[in-house]
Amino acid sequence: MSTYEWLKPLEKIMNRPLTVMTIKVPEWKEIADRAETVSVESPDEAVSVGAWIEHDRKLWMVAESNEKQLAVLEMEALDLDLKDKELMGWSLRHAANGLKSGSEQGASESEKLAFKLGEWLQKQLEAEEPVYSLPDLMTVGSRLYHDMIPFLLVAEQSSVKQDVYPELEKLLRSFLSDDILLIPLKSREWLIWGPLSLLKDEDAEMLEHAEEETMEDSLASIAIGLHEMLASEWLGECHLAVTHPISPAKGMVEAAIMLRETIHLGRKFHIGTNIHLPWMLQLERLLNAIPESNRSKYLEQSLKRADLFVEAEMLSTLETFFSLDCNVSETAKKLYIHRNTLLYRLDKLKQETGLDVRQFRDAVLVKIILLLYKVTKRN
Amino acid sequence: MAGVRLEGIYKKYPGSDKASVTDVNLDIQDKEFLVLVGPSGCGKSTTLRMIAGLEEISEGKLFIGDRLVNDVAPKDRDIAMVFQSYALYPHMNVYQNMAFGLKLRKFKKADIDKRVREAAKILDIEHLLDRKPKALSGGQRQRVALGRAIVREPQVFLMDEPLSNLDAKLRGQMRAEISKLTKRLETTTIYVTHDQIEAMTMGDRIVVMKDGFIQQTDSPEQLYNNPKNIFVAGFIGAPSMNFITGTISEQGGAVRFKAPGVDVSVPEGKAATLRSKGYIGKELIMGVRPEDIHEEPVFLEASPNSIVNANVEVAENLGHEMYLYLNGIGSDTVIARVDGRSGIRDGASVKLALDMNKVHLFDKETELNIFDN
């Protein structure tokens, strides 16, 4: 149910306090059966906005409805005549219609299309057997057949409102390019399609000696830049995932599924990270597929000294060590500790757990244990 | 420009029963350079991110100037941030990177151009304005990130370990440049680092944090000379302060500190406090900075009541000074910083004197500095 911005003005017009309450549809019908007066409505029909019941000097009028529950306005009914009630019912119906299509009213063609695409995509994401290709009607000529870069944005702040679309679209256009497509999904979740031109490297000739950047590197740096811009120039912290370019017409559903899973895995396994890259979460994906009971059992069996892995110092040491490809010198440098201090910590781990992370085999095991530990710890 | 005030700020993450930041109260003055320092996980970055608006404040009030900004979006807080990752916009050149924030705020083209070129001049990156970030070195990228913050002319700069991705030499250079820059721009700056050299050299005041709590807020000198507790004493200073656990006793009117291999006399000023606070006969912890352990004959002669004998495990000669890793003073290894020309070698037996006027004494239970008022 939405926020009732119209409540205050309505209270003023009606000159009485109004209360909004949520009740289930069967409850409403039950009250209607006992009521003194009801609006003309067949008991079998779905309860619509504007329907009212008068009972015991109170008036209840439906302000919003869905299949299961209703938002109902409650007020003193003493001096209200039929015309007052009908007029109020009419106003509420208009307000409800306005809310429903608010985003589309006065919206640009691209915005209308984006909302339609969003609705379609959301349905496919919830369907057991989704349709993977966009219906022809929604492909806007040939535009969506070209490869584009998909990003999924999830905002954290509860202050993000539903009507943020135009502002966000404008911001993304000025940051990425005019040629973007912003599709609203759930509340505070958007699928962004950016043009392939973002990956073009006009300065390549200036970088004679630089290592060639991979597609993944380029996508990651665009995601990092986009995240930085959204965090500092928009509403604050957000989660962002990006994946390989694909044509929206063919890959809309596939990309959305992949990006949602990526953000889910990233948030689950790497708390504190806001940019999530599917190619960096392969192991996490695999581990996530293992049933919880098996994961816990494995952890129990492999951890001789569980408390050692809980120590913040050991955790950060190991995470840095793995992120730097088990390079002792680089890890010591990054952690601002002496090489011997790092070796001491790794020896301590070996002594306590029997696992020497300088050996590939043990390093893999410890990496898996750390990942599993993070997930089980939170459960 | 403006000051920043934090009143009873807490950060609690959903699903965690422990607060990441607890009851932080700070009054940061206009134009002040305040450094938040502490080990990883101490809450310093979380505090900065709450000031920036990147994290929601769970409890408490945050003011920038006189404005309560708890619910103000980052873009509307009139702050500029520079982070460790200095994530530049990869598809824009340096000029566009610096101009973007101003463009969004609908500045006139001429104003944008003026501000960008002025900032580029200050940071000595005028010749790089057409380059994309990928074609820049680490130091140059960091300057662009700073430039992006400067052009905004914000009320407050927020910097989170902005130098940690640079090599040691460049870090030293940029450290001095940032200090110079913020003084010149007279902008209030809140700077997060885990590097105590940065903290000591850059901050007007330093806030030391641990486990989400502020341990001490003071000038660099005060923090170094009058640490409030063992944590601050051990965190500030490199090599760290040595801690020796021992007992206070009184013999013939003289108060002495005794520990394995240590039997030294406590100066009268300190002794009086120990007596009045009832520490005679009790165990406490003595903190001695490495530079307060002396090997010079003159000092030894002048301090007959604070002599200790030790064995040199390792002598690290850095040229201008030497670190001695010593056994025999208390139960742990003690580090002394002596003159590089002292000629002391590994394995030597040495006679040293503690500067008892400069030692710190901490309560063993509370870990608080006994002489702190």
UniProtKB/TrEMBL annotation, chain A:
Residues 315-370 form the PucR C-terminal helix-turn-helix domain. SUPFAM superfamilies: Homeodomain-like (SSF46689). Coiled coil: none annotated. This is PucR family transcriptional regulator. Gene3D superfamilies: PucR C-terminal helix-turn-helix domain. The lineage of its organism: Bacteria, Bacillati, Bacillota, Bacilli, Bacillales. It comes from Paenibacillus paeoniae. It comes from the Bacteria.
UniProtKB/TrEMBL annotation, chain B:
Keywords: ATP-binding, Nucleotide-binding, Transport. Pfam families: ABC_tran, OB_MalK. It comes from the Bacteria. One of its GO terms (cellular component) is ATP-binding cassette (ABC) transporter complex, substrate-binding subunit-containing. Residues 4-236 form the ABC transporter domain. GO terms for molecular function: ABC-type transporter activity; ATP binding; ATP hydrolysis activity. Coiled coil: none annotated. One of its GO terms (biological process) is carbohydrate transport. This is sn-glycerol-3-phosphate ABC transporter ATP-binding protein UgpC. It comes from Paenibacillus paeoniae.
